[in-house]
Amino acid sequence: MNNSHSARERYRLRRAFYREHVGRLLAEEGVGKLDPELVRQIDMAAQQMAAENEQLREALKRQKADFDNFRRRTLKEKEELRDSAKEALLSTLLPVLDNFERALESAKTAQDVESVRQGIEMIAAQLMSTLGSEGLERVDVTGQPFDPTLAEALSIEERSDVPDGQIVEVLRPAYRFKGRVIRPALVKVAKKPSEEPTKA
What we know:
three-stranded mixed beta sheet; Nucleotide Exchange Factor Grpe, Chain A, domain 2; 2 domains; about 60% helix; single chain; elongated; 6 strands; three-stranded antiparallel beta sheet; alpha+beta
């Protein structure tokens, strides 16, 4: 109701404005009184334009509201998908957590350290298997030529028994997730020893 009232008010103001200024211009040009039929047609055209303008304004408001709703709905769906993915991963890790708790409990009274070590190794293997099924892959760069896309050189060691630039020790392993490196390895790289100065 308020929108239609404001549209009529705008139309009334525009009509008064055009009547005043067009009349003044015609008087300045020496043109006589306007034909009433022409005035009626102009008024009808102005009313139609005002109505169309109001329709376009309302359509634009609706479109903006629809877009805002779509954006909010999309953000909510993304958040729900993210939470669902996290929940699925955590569910697969719960059995590993259970085994860790059992191992810690049994380690309190265990007499055989070797059996505790084997138990921890089995849990670590179970964890890697679970993460591997989700797309995580451990990358072994030991003995490989240094590749900056897979490793970061933390130190350099002069070695004559291996090729220059070869990785001789991995201080922290690298991991890929579905083919993309998510953590480079920290490594020690071999360097050919500098030649000793020749004796005189």
